[in-house]
Write a structure and sequence with these properties.
The chain has helices at 18-32, 39-46, 50-57, 60-83, 89-104, 114-122, 127-153, 163-183, 187-202. It is mostly helical. α4 packs antiparallel against α5, α4 (60-83) runs parallel beside α7 and α5 packs antiparallel against α9.
Length: 204
């Protein structure tokens, strides 16, 4: 997710790309978190006044949830393109982690994962955000488990391999990479952890 500019046409009603506007808002939430982000912050980043934001997206929570949904869709797309791009499950999982890590450490100040860096704290007092968070976690679990089941069918993993539990483990490593990236862990250390995480998940 990168910073983008909202399109404006002089002399006419404001024209904007909704997805770009959501991405701009998402970047602010990503840096500041949900609670610490003000409508003034969003207005400045999106180049939209408060009434326009309300008309287009509703309140701050509604906009935040749109940003989470946009990011989650990007995550799902990246997961499909990496986990299922390689025949070898070890290479597939490695590619998946590397793609995620490239997002987590991007920018001058690594921010980790938008969902895990912001929704975990917001979920405590915002039930709908909690539902969104759980839905994302479960979707990633299912995606990884599906890939591991393919590896079992291809006899790359044993028939006794617990795909559901290992998928949960694989995602927990993903969360740790996000947390450590946001905390300032070095890229070299994170890459070593990534390699170890693949081995632990697959039992190799």
């Amino acid at each position: 997710m990168t910073e983008r500019t909202v399109k404006r046409t002089r002399g006419r009603p404001r024209q904007f790309d909704e997805e770009e506007a959501i991405a701009l808002a998402g970047n602010v939430f990503w840096i500041n978190g949900f609670s610490a982000t003000s409508l003034d912050d969003l207005s400045a980043a999106m180049n939209m006044n408060r009434p326009s934001i309300y008309r287009a997206f509703g309140d701050k929570e509604a906009l935040y949830r749109r940003a989470l949904a946009q990011f989650a869709a990007q995550m799902e797309s990246a997961m499909k393109m990496t986990l299922f791009a390689e025949v070898d499950v070890h290479k597939a999982l490695t590619g998946f982690y590397r793609e995620a890590l490239s997002v987590y450490v991007s920018g001058d100040k690594p921010k980790g994962c938008l969902v895990m860096s912001t929704a975990v704290s917001a979920a405590v007092s915002h039930p709908e955000v909690q539902e969104d968070l759980l839905a994302v976690i479960q979707k990633i679990d299912r995606g990884i488990e599906t890939r591991l089941k393919e590896a079992v069918r291809a006899e790359q993993l044993s028939a006794e391999f617990d795909t559901a539990e290992r998928a949960t483990l694989a995602q927990s490593i993903l969360h740790s990479l996000s947390l450590r990236a946001r905390a300032g862990e070095s890229k070299a250390r994170l890459n070593k952890m990534l390699v170890s995480g693949v081995g632990i998940t697959l039992g190799s």
